[in-house]
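DM from R.C. (forwarded with permission)

"hey, sorry to bug you on a friday — could you get me a structure for this? deadline for the figure draft is monday and I only need the backbone to look sensible"
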Amino acid sequence: MQLPGEQHLQPQVGPLALTQKEFAAVSALARTEFGVELGAGKEQLVAARIGKLMRKLRFSSFGEYYEHLRADRTGQYLTQLIDSLTTNHTGFFREQPHFDFLLEHVFPEWQSTRPMRIWSAASSTGEEPYTIALIALEYFATRGGGVPSILGSDISTHALETARKGAYPASRLQSVFAPWLRKHLLRGEGHWDGWYRMRPEVMDMVDFRRINLIQPFPDIGRFDLIFCRNVMIYFSHQTQAQLIARLAACLEPGGYLFVGHSETLTGIQHGLQHVQPAIYRMRGAKR
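My reply, with the result:
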């Protein structure tokens, strides 16, 4: 589908310079639509990324681009904007203590006959939910019981496209866990030489969906574990509090919430029990 603006003949050329009024307009839009705070000091970064996006879409001025951005009812322009402004930094086994906690406490304590439900609420390009799937598959395969079902969600359609493919270059596997990871991945050949792909049984455990965390959640049910890591750092305190309340409402009694180690729930009323750094638990007996 051709977006409005792609037919323009003269693309924006050279570095984009945003006025304070233009930067404020973009900041307000990002805050309203995505909860992302673009604070002072990010003017050049925002200008560079929007400038690149404008060249791709062949807009000759910021005013023209912003007019189409506000008028677009398909949501495609907004999606492209958030894709360009956010950094999908992730990796396999990022913040390893959380995965150690799964293996040492959460999985051994699981007694229910139903499969565990897990939500990776800011899954980016998929490394987080696939890491959970891999260690869960190996753990439960040797002990019986059904493997967990995992929901991976993100606001970035570009990141979700990568996640659904489940294919990663070898450079993304350069860690102490690389030999273990490669054991569970399919090695590419020919055109895909230097790449690895998740095995079908791993990919089948994860369902990816686009969810905007600052908007009311779709009907996704409740979860035993929710990972929402390194996304609240982009939000205001008020938005963080609203998000935590919605996430807590999606937790089963006894369920766990994992946040990033650089994030804290201090100053937020949440009713969750603090377990250890960046890990919280819903009070009540597990079902």
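R.C.: lifesaver. The chain has two domains: 20-85, 96-281.
me: no worries. Confidence is low (pLDDT under 50) at residues 1-13.
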